[in-house]
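User: Study the fold:
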Amino acid sequence: MTPHWRRVAYLIVPLAMGVAACTSAPPPPDEPLSAAAAPPPPPLAAPVTTTQVTPLPPPTTLAMASPQPPPAAPAEIMPPPPPSTVPLTWRPGHWRWTGVPGREWQWDAGRYVERPPGATSWVVGQWQPAPNGWIWVAGHWQ
C-alpha cells in the first residue's frame, strides 16, 4: 500500500496543474457572432456640437414675414387697468403670423404692460408691405 501522502500528492498535483493551466492560459479569441445572434446597432444620434450663443437684437429690430396681409383687427375692449404699484400702459393686440396651414394668423390679445423708467409712450407695432410680402415692425417704448 502506498503511503497516505503519495495518494494525496497524486490528487493534488494534477488538480493544481489544471488550475494553473486555467489561470495562465490566454483568453480565447472572440468569435464573430452570426447575423441572427448579433445585437442591433446603436441608434444613430446627431453629432454633438457646441456653438457660441449670439444675443438677439432688441425687440424693435425683430421682424416676422408673411406672404399675405393680416386680417382686419377685431374690436378689442380695453378693460380697466389692474391694481399696480408701477405705471401701466395698454399695449393693443395684433395679428401674429404662424405659417400653419389653415391657421396662418393668430391674434395676440392686448394687455397692460409695465412702463419702463424714462419711457413716456408705447409706439404700436404694425404690419407693413415689403417686396416679398409683409413684415411686422414691432412696437417699442419712447
Notes: Helices lie at 4-24. The first helix runs from residue 4 to 24. Residues 9 and 15 are 10 Å apart (CA to CA). The first strand starts at residue 65 and ends at 66.
